[in-house]
Amino acid sequence: MSAPLIAVGGVNRTWDGSDRTGVNAAYAKSVLAAGGVPLILSPLLGSSHAARALAGVDGVLFTGGEDVHPAWYHAEPSPHLFPPSRERDLFELALFAAARQMELPILGICRGIQLINVAMGGTLYQDIPAEYPTAIDHNPTAERHHRTHAVRLEAGSRAEVALGSAPLTVNSFHHQAIRDLAKGLIATGWTEDGLIEAVETVPGTPWLLAVQWHPEEMFGEANAPDGGLFRALVKEASRRESESVDSSAPRDPAGFDRVSGHQGTAAGRSPR
Ligand code: MN
User: Fold this and answer.
1) Are 92 and 62 in contact (CB under 8 A)?
2) Residues 177-193: tens digit of each pLDDT
3) Is 216 designated active site?
4) What is the CATH number of the domain that holds 44?
5) Domain range for residue 146?
6) 118 CA to centre of ligand 1 in angstroms
7) pTM of the predicted model, to two decimals?
């Protein structure tokens, strides 16, 4: 069995005077540390190439970044909204739809949990301090790997299995959060103020886990529980990768390619 390919949603940025596209290195390091092969997907691909870009991919990671445009959840932009990226919204919504159709396992981080909730029909608080004044500070001035607030996990949930049952404190730098949870998702992690910090899909549907904090920033911490999230994604992706190889056996080798093999596998397998 080869190491599974994990697509990682990227960003467009300008620095040193040039337009660039890529991801924070922490995401790639965390996927590599978990035994996966990170494959960075640029928003420049656009919605038309999103599904094609997933050919041969075994799992998908949706990363942090810009606010999702509130039009996607039928709300007017708040004056506290941070600048959204239409290009990234369009790409990632298409990528998410394609990944779900292919029944790929999905991990979401920060913007990722928000994008997933919106893509599945949920809504967001556009700015926590303005719309949820009883919240604790979710965007303190702190280093990116600094753990600043506790998260309570549902016993027996995917999140708890991945992160362990010991008391958990996480880093936090977000000003938005899930408001109305999408149908098809269940909340499995919360801060003491009641905001959702972890979600997963209901049993019997393709595997998905998402968190509001930044586990990738803990890659430098020996035995950080957060690494368990990436290992959980890679484990699910490995299962898919080995199933895909198995499913190729009865097919005509001359007519087999990896793309059609994956789609055939997804269509022919019962949900899990
Ligand atoms: Mn938080």
Assistant:
1) yes
2) 999 999 999 999 999 99
3) yes
4) 3.40.50.880
5) 5-268
6) 18
7) 0.89
